[in-house]
Amino acid sequence: MSTDQSPIRTYAEFWPFYLGQHRQRRTRLIHVAGTSLGLLALVTAILSFSGFWLLMALVIGYGAAWVAHAFVEHNRPATFSYPLWSLRGDFHMLWFWLTGRLESELVRYNIISLGFLLTLLTLCLFVLIQYCSQVQSSTGLRCRSMP
Q1: What is d(CA 64, CA 69) in angstroms, rounded to the nearest whole number?
Q2: What is the pLDDT of residues 36-61, one digit of tens each?
């Protein structure tokens, strides 16, 4: 990963830097929402030949990201230093999120720890067990155990 002193020369170098600028889950979720809504506005602009929706695509996509960086992450968006790679990174992160691989990518580059994921999985398992217990006690039905 590159430091602030040495310029990033390739997208492969940029990607871990980009992920590091999105350490907090809320930042990533706001980015995913902004990118998704921005894409929806872009499709609307294309289908309706509307300059308004084209402008809204930019405002929604970048606006959401910049708000997340300012108020959640408290850092400077990569857009200002690497505009095209940052845009590519937004779509890259959206794709990883949609395919369920974003968390493992964050662990791969040591952005979040594996311990965090294990804690999250344990919490999900606990909630599932509690839910099955409530279903069993209220209906008399039993949750099937795994084979």
Answers
A1: 9
A2: 999 999 999 999 999 999 999 999 99
